Amino acid sequence: MRAITYSSYGSADNLELSELPVPKVGPDSVLVRVKAASVNPVDWKVREGYLDGLMDTVFPVVPGWDVAGVVEQVGLDTPEFEVGDEVFGYVRKDWMQAGTFAEYVAAPVRTLAKKPAAWSFEEAAGVPLAGLTALQTIDRAGVSEGDTVLVHAAAGGVGSFAVQIATARGARVIGTASEKNHDYVRSLGGEPVAYGDGLLARVDELAPDGVDVILDYVGGVMDTTSELLSDLGVVVSVADPTARTEHDGIYAWVRPSSDDLDELGRMAEAGALSVRVDQVFDLADAADAHRASETGHAVGKIVVRV
């Protein structure tokens, strides 16, 4: 099968199109014929070696954790899926090696769910890691009807899902974004504010009694915005461990979950969750997809079509 690989840590120049054997399928896994995958910032951070202290790496590595495709083969004990099922998932394993930037990936059933008919394969591939991150941080923060939620990086991959999910739960959402993306944040149901100098005053004007939840998807904002919390407010960050160590909040790491993917799918079918695909690259151009992610300027998701 064709796959994108890298044989050592380094820049996107290390990515190359290779030929690899089709993966073996374990008893609780299925073989997915990949239609699309997506790039997340963690993908190039792993490639650069930044997560080497957290996860074992077996070279050559096929990058990518997000996938959308069709079940080609089932394992010995996988009653959840049949051959031909359209699926999407966050195929993160306990080590780095056999990712989703390939024609096939062996995926444990706990990492997959049925793809909603409302989404194309490209849209579905853009959802798993970012959508699960948004959903799980919102769950851990206990967001509910009537809460005021401040979402940092509201126009980004994770933030755009968080705005929609929190709004669907009846929360009022204020989202930081550059001014060029304010209309996009409004279209998701949020109230945009420009980040940078004067952010505290702008949020305080909108929510003079403070915010109930701060969701940080960018990092570097704890010291300046934690004072916006109401007395019983909570902060959740996926980018800054000081949320837990210094601000009595939560530092979150997204987990694969079929149940949570199912919830995202139900929201999609109900018209409550949309996906914005910013750019689509062919598999052979995966290095360019990584470079596009590294700029930090994507609005929505960067997808690789297989």
TrEMBL record:
InterPro entries listed in its UniProt record: ADH-like_N, Chloroplast_QOR, ER, GroES-like_sf, NAD(P)-bd_dom_sf
Domain Enoyl reductase (ER) span(s) in chain numbering: 10-304
Single Gene Ontology MF annotation: oxidoreductase activity
Superkingdom of the source species: Bacteria
Record protein name field: NADPH2:quinone reductase
